[in-house]
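Q: My collaborator sent me two sequences in one message, no labels, and asked for predicted structures for both. Can we handle them in order? The first one she listed is below.
A: Yes, handling them in the order given. First sequence, followed by its structure tokens:
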Amino acid sequence: MSLGTTEPAPAQPAPAGPRATATAAPAARSTDRAIAALRARLTLEEKVALLVGAGLWSTTAVPRVGLRAVHVSDGPAGVRGVSEDAAETSASFPAPSALAATWDVDLADELGALFAAEARRHGVDVVLAPQVNLQRTPVGGRHFECYSEDPTLTGRIAVHVVRAAQERGVGMCVKHFVANDSETQRTTYLSRVDERTLREVYLAPFEQLVHEARAWSVMGAYSGIDDGTTAAPALEHRPLLTGVLKDEWGFDGVVVSDWVATRSVAGAFEGGLDLQMPGPDGVWGDGLLAAVRAGEVDEAALDEKVERILLLARRVGAIDGLAPEGASRDRVADVDVRGTLRRLVARSMVVLKDDEHALPLASGDVRRVALVGPNALAPFVQGGGSAYVRPERRAELDDAVRDAFAGAEVTVHAGAVSRLLPPALDLAHRCTSPAGEPGVLVEVLDAAGAVLEARTVTAWTGWLRDVRADAHAVRLRTTVTLDEPGRHEVGVGTVGRHRVVVGGEVLSTSEHEVGAEVILDSSVNAPTPVTLAVETPHAAAGHAEPVTIELDATVQAVHPVGYASFARAELVHRTPGTSPDELLADAVAAAAAADLAVVVVGTNEEVESEGYDRTSLALPGTQDQLVKAVLAANPRTVVVVNAGAPVLLPWLDEVPCVLWAWLGGQEWPEALGDVLTGVTEPSGRLPWTLPAHESDVPVPDAVPVDGVVEYREGVHVGYRSWLRLGRTPAAPFGHGLGWTTWSYDGVRAEPVADEPAAYDLVVTLRNTGPRAGREVVQVYAEPPAASSDRPVRWLAGFAVAELAPGERRDVTVRVPASTWRTWEAGWVVPPGTYRLRAGRSVQDLRVGTEVTVRT
């Protein structure tokens, strides 16, 4: 696709009468003869085994017929790999919201190619991504993992990612089908969504991915759906999983369960599930073969599922003698990993404000930079949960800024407190084992308390993985030395059965046994520690004798169904440190003495993670106070917001320059340096709405009531609700300034010859600023005046254009026939005069024209 145009949408059939089938007709699922012949060679036991994972990250192999295992891996922001080896690293991608913020399908193609390259490097056949659930509420824990609050933007970006990866022979597993938009009670709640809303909003990205990208796999959600006719867990919802996805859309791929989401044998089998993950145990591992033999499930249906598994295996090259798919399989090495990621995250950054045209900054004018803020010391580059990878590299922000500003003096100051949980205990320097060695004694115990194995460690991640099957508990013992005067906190965070004793005090005890549920709800990732506060004395001469306390924690050895066994004990220690007031004073003094202050505020893994939703949109800790204080000390201040999901910015009107910088992955520090100094334009546009006040948010939470999440807003998701309610956000959907200015000089609509009811909207665009720049031309549709139940306006298409200073160009945006359709027990296109408007955001629309749609 060349800049200034959009890729033509697939041809769609013309409406017939009042009804319109505004998507490609589903292709009948054809059985490959070779696949059918291979299936016929399998025994019943082998066929059943193919429908159950062989382990955490692989399917079952049948070597005698030339079928190897298919390997899968998380996740949405990089390819983690299939090993639990702590030494295995991956390229850390920007969070999916950052990609959507580019509104650039060419960059999405590049990232799809990068997914394929990383998958091959890690021996992965299918990547469990992208996540195309919508950002229905800003407090959603996995908000950062989704693309957008809009189904059209989500679908367009995802189609390019999936298509580019699969063209290179790597499958993508689109998730989570469907209406899985909350983390609270995420394995049990029921989403109550009417059929129209499902069709027009939440199913729409999945439909695009089936028709336009031929996605090879779809993951069913933990949660359930009540569409007004059928209420069932997602994996058992036959009208959606089989009726819509497979039969109506013609999806020929594999429906995979979310991990340990399968709740029944016959219900999930009949519903449309093809592959239970993981295995080999679990509901299907324990009961599917017996159900087939007992006639409780149909063997012909079993064969159909087996053929889907074999087709996926053939596509990724896992069957000897059968040619894999992917016309560009050999091009996986043609990827500049670091360069692609660095350019992507720089382009994704959104200029929320730049009143004095501060960006880009002339590096020669800046000799002293004060980097201020908790996220300046520890940038938050990836969210928690299945999106997390072990980055293959880590760059320090101060080094990147120093390089960007040609050796300027750069100082770093926290300035504020943003974390609630204490940091990790320093085992090597503070701890002594019972035998007098540095570190912690770790003992694996059986049910009688006998020691099965023991070792002393000086490095501890908080996890003991692959615990032996006969382990009942893990005990950790050490003496902690506290040698700074003041208040210390020492403690342990864990899950399940435990006994924690610190300083002779029993801080917590429980006999509650846990299993896979602590993985599914992510409570195991960030357990809240119990701590003992210890005051160490101040000596008259400023030196206190060290204080020692004993730590003795016995925690459960967890043996979860479907997952590797583990024990969890987060050992934590908060030192007396510097008070918040002292941190603030230090940062303000540094800012006042600098040529430039860059304040980096944001969230962290305590706030944005799979497994739990946020309880507030405020920046954590004292960061708002820090921004105002630094701005008062140095008017040449740039504020960088390092967050994935929306946060409140109460100082937005006061700060002259504010940059939204996302969770940027491993290349984030250098990309930020590129943006500040003009190497790359921050040309991102918001893929969601930024609230000014928490009380204005149309969907303030997604907390189930009696197990049900009600989608009362219907089709009015995201910015559509803001418009309908007449509320003013801090920044609207699609907003972003870049570093030049633009004029929209004209518009015309041209009918598409081979697609009835489709139009090419031709927008005359001019770069009126002093620099070359990239503009995202956004086109929105508005219904006929009488259509009170339709959204006020909705995104109809977009294109990215790059123009030199003073250049004027026509930019074409395709508006497909599906733009006009609505669901009334079937797709219909209400006739009438629709308005198409183009501009810079959903609220900043510069030109428009009308088109008449007939049926």
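Q: And the one she listed second?
A: Here it is, processed independently of the first:
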Amino acid sequence: MLTTAERRRGIGAGLTVLATVIVFVGTAVATLLAWDGDQSASRLFTAYTWSILRFTLWQAALSTLLSVAFAIPVALALARRPRFAGRAWVLRLMALPMGLPALVGALGLLGVWGRQGILNGWLTTAGLEQPVSVYGLSGILLAHTFFNIPLAVRLLLAVLERLPAEYWLLSASLGMKPLSIFRFVEWPALARIVPGVAGLIFMLCATSFTLVLVLGGGPAATTLEVAIYQALRFDFDPPRAIALAFLQIAVTAAVIGLIALLPAATDTVRTAGRKALRLDGRSAASRLWDSLIIAIAVIFVASPLLSVLVAGLRADLLTLVTGPRFVQAATTSLVIAVTAAVIAVSASLAIITARQAISDRRDPDLAARLLSTSLAGTSSLVLVVPPIILGTGWFLVLRQFGNVAAFAPYLVAFINAMMALPFAVRVLEPALQDHRQQTARLAAALGIAGPAKWRLIDLPILTRPILTALSFAMALSLGDLGAVALFGSSDLVTLPWLVYSTLSSYRTNDADGLALILGMVCLALTILGTSGRKEHENA
């Protein structure tokens, strides 16, 4: 039970965060609405705008289909093979792309599939000229499947591994063939989660920015977010950027609404609690098939990562890290990342504490319940209004006050904090709820409250989840190119912007070295955040 003062402080902190987020997002959206609406509306109904919308939805649909279609057999193969040499490393490999900056992954794909890549080198040796092009729609699909197949595999595998052991005993006793097992046991379990996984991947692909920017290959392969960036950065056409921005908001809102309508995947099966022992898939053909599928998945995911490592080690890393441009970019990135992480974690703690204070009341009124719902939606608001939209709105606001570059670092840090907010809430909320259930009554009985309770009871237990949320938020901010893309200049250089500008200057060797450094730092932060957690929790 919380004291009255603690409830007031908690609700007050939550209201402060809610008001700040509403003002920040509302100012950007209101500016877009107020900026020459007639011209923006006329740009909304052009053939160019609708072609971009069609391509955005088409590439997202194809990427989702490819990712899920390939992830299902990989997850099935891993589920059938719970014990083999290197399985733990395969699962760890499937986690690496989730902690890798999109720009680093794109460079790895170019190293394998690009014009000067490994695959084209082999095909050229075989006598083919320009056999594979990684730019355009094919490159976007390749990049999206590289990042999303591991995510889908881990989500689907977690569902398969939770199936009761009795299912496998019964299927073995009935002599069910692999096709029957898939039809009656595995697919019903997967069918509950596949729509949600597909919706999540579609959302990620529809709002993809960095991968399309690097691999898009021109106007014919441009998504809404990249078109917004081009309209402001190169053409300075605010009406077109605003029209595209509202199309982007409409698309993301529609996708989130459809995802919310999907049935929740719940485990409703009762089990005796036996350890699952699969008796199927012991034939030579089944073993060969599973080994082939797992090997293909490992090669597909590992080859770009190895390409980044090998190409990065060929660069003169010592010269790169001691150069003034790198020092400037690393310092700027670190300051922005730490600031964004602290803001995101502080806001998450305020939101969670406020919701707990509201739920602690015996009979919360309608206003309190609405506030709790609003606080829950605040952390996900960035999904509806993506960072490129926020950057566009605030770009138009700040240019009225002079040099936008002077405000850019603060703006980028706050946008990155908004991006990290949903992840920080997901990490911290379960930990705070468990901690409160375990210590609330004892703290009340001992009369410990306020700062003393936080110092003596809360902080020793919550240090690990807070550090986890901080590391995730820092990794997300360090690897992000979208927020800084509109504001990057000689005065504001982050590590992703330095990699991108170096690559644009055709200094590929230096870009590979910088990408390796950036990727290693982000992966180190991600591993630090997940250290000590059980494998099934990661999945």
